Amino acid sequence: MTRPVSGHHPPAVKEWRLSLYLSEHDPDTTARIVLDTGDSVLESHAEARRSPDDHDVPEIGDELAAGRALIAMGRLLVRAANGDMRALGAAEEESPVPLWLTRE
């Protein structure tokens, strides 16, 4: 017979719902992300603009705008976590390596 190890809890499973909306108004593509954690809702936006000299390939604008919106969402989540940690008295520390390039 096995016994649960004291202090060991089964893993908690959470589901966060992320909706990504893309809209194209040539030459611009806009991405909007809504993340519902069940406790809060976060929203990020980003754009991509096609140069007049580039080929018209809508998928590229979708990928760039969505990727940039996901990066922006990541920044929002990290900021929220840092704020929560500071509220609990944690010392403020900076990451030694950037999580993403500023050009993205």
Automatic annotation (TrEMBL):
SUPFAM superfamilies in UniProt: Rv2632c-like
One Pfam family matching this protein: Rv2632c-like
Domain of life of the organism encoding this protein: Bacteria
Gene3D superfamilies: Rv1738
InterPro entries xref list: Rv2632c-like, Rv2632c-like_sf
Protein name per the record: DUF1876 domain-containing protein
Organism: Streptomyces misionensis
